[in-house]
Amino acid sequence: MAMAVKSVYEMLDNPHRTDEPLVPFYMLQALHGILPQFSSRDEHGHLEQQDANECFSEIQRMLLKQIGKDVREFFRGRYQVRQKCLECEDEPIQNTTEEFYQLSCFLSPEVRYIQSGIKEKLSGEIEKTSTILGRNANGRRNVLIDRLPAYISIQMVRFFFKESSQVNAKILKDVKFPMILDLRDMCTPALQEKLIPQRTAVKKEEDAKIERMRKQKMEGTDAKSVEDDGTPLPFSFPDDEGSNNSGFLRVEGRSSNSGHYVAWVRIDEDKWAMCDDDHVTPVTSDQILKLSGGGDWHCAYVLLYGPRIVKEYPELKDGKENLVEQTEAIENMKTN
Fold this sequence. Notes:
It is a single chain. The chain has 336 residues and is α+β, with helices and mostly antiparallel strands. It has a single domain, classed as Cathepsin B, Chain A (Alpha-Beta Complex), CATH 3.90.70.10. It has helices at 2-13, 25-34, 52-67, 69-72, 114-122, 189-219, 285-289, 319-335, and strands at 77-85, 94-100, 102-106, 124-130, 135-147, 152-157, 159-162, 167-170, 180-182, 231-232, 248-257, 261-268, 271-276, 279-283, 300-307, 311-312. The strands form 4 sheets. Strands 3, 6, 9, 11, 12, 13, 14 and 15 form an 8-stranded mixed β-sheet that branches. Strands 2-1-5-4 form a 4-stranded antiparallel β-sheet. Strands 7-8 form a two-stranded antiparallel ribbon. A hairpin with a 3-residue loop joins strand 11 (248-257) and strand 12 (261-268). Helix 1 packs antiparallel against helix 2. It starts with a helix and ends with a helix. It catalyses: Thiol-dependent hydrolysis of ester, thioester, amide, peptide and isopeptide bonds formed by the C-terminal Gly of ubiquitin (a 76-residue protein attached to proteins as an intracellular targeting signal).
């Protein structure tokens, strides 16, 4: 599977590639060979529709297994789990950790935003075995994120089995999701403390951009023509490669379901591409945000968030300093 994915990227990066559509036959053959459940056909011999999240998760699992720890750390999150028996105060509290590679957003009637849909199922009432009572008892499970990976996929749980008609029904509910997702409130106090330096850097970055916009306005300079002089900062902790050191994640892409799956991929900043089979169309962030559901338009099913890259900007010099530098540069050019 890893070699098949590599072949796709090599075809995409080929400088001699024409504008003809790229056909990833090798990738499809590898998928069907390694994961035959995705090669099933209907009575007419056509490939059947498969669940996009199941396919994504299986491909991810195979890649992480084949490539190993170096890549796995970019996708591996960790929960801190606390379970308490509500019927017996003497029952010891259980503290454990669990790994995760995906978050789920459950679309209950109360959920309006993706953050609340994720938090709703992280904690809640459970039934657990009580060693003191010698039976199952009511308990409570509280879950916080102890490690944030650089990349997180989030499944919008839009399908449920409808008993009356014996089919998988789709939930078209409108659930808003942001371009920048902040998961700080779902983290342990210890991790929240570790996130502070990078979150401070985010604030400094925003202040630096505002300062440059103000300077542009004073100088009458077109904002689009100003060079970005920021230097990207690491997005992982020094002792934990592949982690997320800010709690912020930036949406990278998603799949939606409306008869068939469509991929929406971020190219750069506000530039996105809608990939509908072999038909690729440019779209904007505003169009991406409309994938929250609630109507006849596409609705997001799987979202992929990546690290928000924070930049460090140098101090701006005032007009006099810039004028002196420009004059010295001109004099040097004349001398040379």
